[in-house]
Amino acid sequence: MKYDHILVRYGELTLKGTNRKRFTNVLKENVIQSLRSLEGTRVKCERDRMFISLFEEANVNEVMNRLTKIFGIKSISPVFKTTQNLEDIKQLCVSLAKDFANGDTFKIDVKRVDKSFSLDTYQLQRELGGVILKSVDHLKVDVKRPTHNIKVEVRKEGVYIYTKVIDGAGGLPTGTGGKTLLQLSGGIDSPVAGMEMMKRGVKIEAIHFHSPPFTSEKAKDKVIELTRILSERVGPIKLHIVPFTALQKQINKSVHPRYTMTTTRRMMLRVTDIILERIGANAIVNGENLGQVASQTLKSMYAINDVTSTPILRPLISLDKEDIIKKAKEIGTFEVSIQPYEDCCTIFTPKNPVTEPDFDKVVKYESVFNFDDLVQEAADNVETIEINKDYKTEKDKSTDALIDELF
Ligand code: ATP
Ligand code: MG
């Protein structure tokens, strides 16, 4: 039997009172966008749930796969819809039960939303349980721990029958929580930080600092690929790639070797702030995690943070590395992040960076050279690309062309 609808349950939306309408509208738009390239679906939004109609040509598995990635969805169920006619309901339950394996048990769970329906909950449960037992002899009833829980929802417009409830991504619909700029390195942490914020309904653009020739095209492609993976959930994401070589060289020339890391981060933040202003975002997101490396002590964060009054969100600040890795694996960025291409910080990292930078010294070392022009220049020469889930790098394209030629 082929499912004809998918029932979509909203996540925390129900808690959002007056905002609910706006939230459901955004969620509906996100679902439509995500399913756009697939055939045979129609989205219908109700106050506290959504139904996706599936037509003959619909690929149910692919539709479900995409829905489970959309933030703001608590769970989904593939369902069959029929009329309120008792015979129709019975027939559907029986066809469904015929697919259950020999020796399986079941339970009927009726939800009678339409109170005008002729039978009460208990009567309908008994009718349906009875007809299944009579028509399919290899099944038994077990109300405590059934193999299959057949849920029957009686509503005004029809009756929905289903057995599976599949977890959604949770969180809030992307686009309901404002815009942030994510500092995206090629490492494990920052893509996870971005995903955590997107889960709270926040839209992100990403900024990456690139120092050719010290960092390779491959390092850049890695960040593009990470952005592409993030975009699978939320649609196109803009990636701003900042040429950082001149700044990085100057930092290494004029700042005390133990303090170059602190100043590098401060310069990154200054450039980030200029781009943030330009794109109308309200906060910066990074993958900092307390105690992980030299730049991530409180004293270090204090010194770095000093160059901006823009809120910096650090969703991973208190997590254990193991948990971050687990999340990276779940969202599919881990394998890309561990590819060994250096990002600009790794290359310029001093052997012995100060872990507790003295704020006065930070300012003193930086005062030897006026970085303003270099910061502005880096921001002015940013390369911005919009990346969606089908984005191909130049390298991907040439590989494709080569394959086309061969076959
Ligand atoms: P990650 O795994 O995200 O690289 P990390 O543990 O390696 O983090 P750092 O290298 O100290 O930590 O970087 C801390 C944060 O600074 C990163 O999570 C990221 O948000 C930002 N960052 C570092 N390098 C870059 C870069 N080249 N471009 C953009 N942001 C960067
Ligand atoms: Mg890093």
Automatic annotation (TrEMBL):
Belongs to the ThiI family. InterPro entries: Rossmann-like_a/b/a_fold, ThiI_AANH, ThiI_fer, ThiI_N, THUMP_dom, THUMP_ThiI, tRNA_STrfase, tRNA_sulfurtransferase_ThiI. It is found in: Cytoplasm. GO terms for molecular function: ATP binding; CCA tRNA nucleotidyltransferase activity; tRNA binding; tRNA-uracil-4 sulfurtransferase activity. Pathway: Cofactor biosynthesis; thiamine diphosphate biosynthesis. It comes from Staphylococcus hominis. It catalyses: [ThiS sulfur-carrier protein]-C-terminal Gly-Gly-AMP + S-sulfanyl-L-cysteinyl-[cysteine desulfurase] + AH2 = [ThiS sulfur-carrier protein]-C-terminal-Gly-aminoethanethioate + L-cysteinyl-[cysteine desulfurase] + A + AMP + 2 H(+); [ThiI sulfur-carrier protein]-S-sulfanyl-L-cysteine + a uridine in tRNA + 2 reduced [2Fe-2S]-[ferredoxin] + ATP + H(+) = [ThiI sulfur-carrier protein]-L-cysteine + a 4-thiouridine in tRNA + 2 oxidized [2Fe-2S]-[ferredoxin] + AMP + diphosphate. Keywords: ATP-binding, Cytoplasm, Nucleotide-binding, RNA-binding, Thiamine biosynthesis, Transferase, tRNA-binding. The keyword Lipoprotein does not apply. NCBIfam families: tRNA uracil 4-sulfurtransferase ThiI. This is Probable tRNA sulfurtransferase. Pfam families: ThiI, ThiI_fer, THUMP.
